[in-house]
Write a structure and sequence with these properties.
Blueprint: E1 5-6, E2 16-18, H1 51-58, E3 63-65, H2 68-74, E4 82-84, H3 86-92, E5 97-102, H4 113-125, E6 130-135, H5 139-151, E7 154-160, H6 161-166, H7 168-176, E8 180-184, H8 190-198, H9 206-218, E9 223-225, H10 232-252, E10 258-262, H11 267-283, E11 288-294, H12 299-302, E12 304-309, E13 318-323, H13 345-352, E14 357-361, H14 363-377, H15 385-402, E15 407-412, H16 420-427, H17 438-446
Parallel strand pairs: 5-15, 6-7, 6-9, 7-8, 10-11, 10-15, 11-14
Antiparallel strand pairs: 1-4, 2-3, 4-5, 12-13
Helix pairs in contact: 1-10, 2-4, 3-14, 4-5, 5-7, 8-9, 10-11, 14-15
Bound molecules: pyridoxal-5'-phosphate.
């Protein structure tokens, strides 16, 4: 029998998170105060986040100890399995060896609880009563709802209206873990009301939902805000994924030539790729790390590297990032988790320095890839995850054409069991090819009056 699964035991759950900033040749530029354009210190974030997470946001330490209580909750589903994708290799008739790390075994079905549990833990330590957040596809909201329930914290979720309508069961899942869920834009906040007045039919966006959740958190001392992607501490927490994967690849006697992950704000990409990039930075290895984004929201491949807001309402500090402009509202693609206008600061700097690569895939190509994968490997991937699979297929086909065998590892960051509407639309022929024109991108960026770099 071929061994498909490479497993670790519970005591091999990593004991530390890996902070890639310590190894980066060019450190990320500082966030700026939008009013003064001066660099802001960590204290500016204190109304929104607990102090320990703010410290993690700026720490120069290479390794950060994972609290025992967090590792203990991780053990509900971690270590996650690493699979050799024999079925996909055969379906593609490729000489490439393909592996995937499967994060869909978590309670909420994606990698998101890796940071949700850590964030809820530090909020609890500092006496926070309520956490607000946004959610796109519902993956982050459900992860945070699960984590908050564990620590007996109230959870309030602003869910992008498009997803709220597409994914009613994600909402019910959050309700099951005790969270309150609002379709965003909502009339529970000033910014929500303003946007609804201007554009009552809007499908919403992550940028808008973030503004709503931040407004609520800023309104009271015992309400804090949590973000499921983009920020440094979120990427830090996700590095348990890549550390486990590295160990598992070593067990399999293989090291990847190419590491691939889908890209929304960068957290699952960072989680898988950073522990492998560490080998590049420390030992001069040449592992290619590729971020896969939708052609409908191509900030990495077609955005501009400059300062921009993290949210549509302009309430966050200015961050140095690849962006399509904070007012950009992406087309209503099913990969809700990838509908974000910007890329996290660390990943942006790494791309700027050409230490990682990025690729964009059309909406039809990714569904084709998702179905190919489901039929070959059984697991139905989340629409976000299909973007990584599309890149895997391209690289595997290149191997076939060139007659070389490479080892490819990718992050199957979530299952698609709540995304049947997306697959249904695909089978009904209702998924359109969609690519932004150069004019649309220029027009969105032209609206920015934030500093260029
Ligand atoms: C949230 C999410 C993403 C996108 O966010 P990242 O921070 O880029 O990882 C991708 N896939 C799934 C399954 C998600 O839940």
């Amino acid at each position: 029998m071929k061994h498909r699964k490479i497993l670790l035991s519970e005591n091999e759950i990593p004991e530390k998170w890996y902070n890639i900033i310590a190894d980066m040749p060019n450190k990320p530029l500082p966030p700026l105060n939008p009013a003064t354009l001066e660099p802001i210190g960590p204290e500016a974030l204190a109304p929104l986040f607990p102090m320990e997470l703010i410290k993690q946001e700026v720490t120069p330490e290479k390794w950060v100890t994972i609290p025992d209580e967090v590792r203990n909750i991780y053990s509900l589903w971690r270590p996650t399995p690493l699979y050799r994708a024999y079925g996909l290799e055969k379906a593609l008739d490729t000489p490439a060896k393909i592996y995937y790390k499967y994060e869909g075994v978590s309670p909420s079905g994606s990698h998101k609880p890796n940071t949700a549990v850590a964030q809820a833990y530090y909020n609890k330590q500092e006496g926070v009563k309520t956490i607000t957040t946004e959610t796109g596809a519902g993956q982050w909201g459900s992860a945070l709802a699960f984590a908050c329930k564990h620590f007996k914290i109230n959870c309030e979720v602003y869910m992008v209206k498009l997803s709220y309508e597409h994914k009613p069961y994600r909402k019910t899942m959050m309700n099951t873990w005790g969270a309150k869920v609002f379709p965003s834009p909502s009339d529970a906040t000033q910014i929500g009301k303003k946007i609804l007045a201007e554009n009552p039919d809007t499908t919403g966006s992550l940028g808008i939902a973030i503004s709503e959740a931040i407004e609520r958190a800023a309104s009271s001392d015992d309400i804090k805000y949590a973000l499921g992607s983009v920020l440094n501490h979120v990427k830090l927490h996700q590095t348990v994924v890549g550390q486990e994967a590295l160990k598992q690849m070593e067990k399999a006697g293989d090291l990847p030539d190419i590491v691939i992950a889908p890209f929304g704000g960068g957290s699952n990409f960072a989680g898988l790729a950073f522990p492998f990039l560490r080998l590049n930075l420390e030992e001069g290895r040449k592992i290619r790390c590729i971020a896969s984004e939708p052609a409908s929201c191509p900030k990495l491949t077609r955005g501009e590297f400059r300062y921009d807001f993290g949210d549509t309402g302009g309430m966050t500090p200015l961050l140095p990032m690849y962006t399509l402009g904070h007012n950009f509202v992406p087309a209503p693609i099913h990969a809700g988790g990838l509908r974000y206008h910007g890329a996290g600061v660390i990943v942006s700097q790494l791309l700027k320095d050409q230490l990682i690569e990025a690729i964009a895939h059309d909406n039809l190509e990714v569904f084709e890839a998702g179905v190919t994968f489901a039929q070959a490997e059984g697991i139905i991937p989340a629409p976000e995850a299909t973007h990584g699979i599309a890149t895997v297929i391209r690289e595997a086909e290149k191997c076939k054409q060139e007659g070389v065998s490479k080892t490819i590892l990718f992050n199957l960051c979530g299952h698609g069991n709540f995304d049947m509407k997306a697959y249904e639309d695909y089978f009904a022929g209702n998924i359109q090819k969609h690519e932004l024109s150069e004019e649309e991108i220029k027009a969105s960026l032209a609206k920015l009056n934030t500093p260029t770099i």
